Amino acid sequence: MGRCHYDAATQLAKSPPLFGSADHLAGIAAECAIKAMLLDFFGSVQDTPLGIPYSPAIRNRPAQSQTQAKKAWKDSQHGHLPHVWDQLLLLANGHHGATVLAQIPQQNPFRESTDEWDVAHRYRDSGQISEQRVKRHLAAARTVIAAYQQAK
User: Fold this and answer.
1) pLDDT tens, 17-45?
2) Dihedral of CA 121/32/112/11: which sign?
């Protein structure tokens, strides 16, 4: 559910040359916790050959055209941050949803206009990743993991 990635990220965040790896793992930790919530609490499934989790509620919404149906198919897949955070905000409902939404920021901390987290940033030079960014993403991952634990 992301806890091991979070623990590794906190260790890596102690060394400036490893900020890039710490930031990457913080995002992956948050992503894992979000996907666990979507699967465990909000009706998402993971039944495709590739194992990519998705939301049937999004995938099966009425479409007026083939283009809209393809868009719904793509939009339903739980890929990477920052998109999957937005999906959580959209799909969280009921008792679990109230518990989760009360604990996580409605403003996506992985979608900063000038500093958006992207899974491809694992290829960036660690010198381009600030300590402030790493701390912000670690705090967000910690919050999401705690929200999952609280909602269980």
Assistant:
1) 999 999 999 999 999 999 999 999 999 99
2) negative
Which one-letter amino acid corresponds to residue 36?
A: A
Q: Which amino acid is at 74?
A: K
Tokens representing 91 are 């799909």
Q: What is the pLDDT of residues 75-101, one digit of tens each?
A: 999 999 999 999 999 999 999 999 999
Q: Which two structure tokens, joined as six digits, stand for 57?
A: 């509620």
- The 3-state DSSP class for residue 84 equals helix
Long-range CB contacts for residues 102-108, cutoff 8 Å, separation at least 24: 103/143, 103/146, 103/147, 103/150, 104/143, 104/144, 104/147, 105/140, 105/143, 108/82
Q: Which of 47, 55, 60, 61 is nearest to 84 (CA)?
A: 55
CA separation, residue 60 to residues 11, 105, 143 (Å): 42, 28, 31
- Helix residue spans in 16-130 (DSSP H): 19-41, 56-59, 66-76, 83-91, 94-103
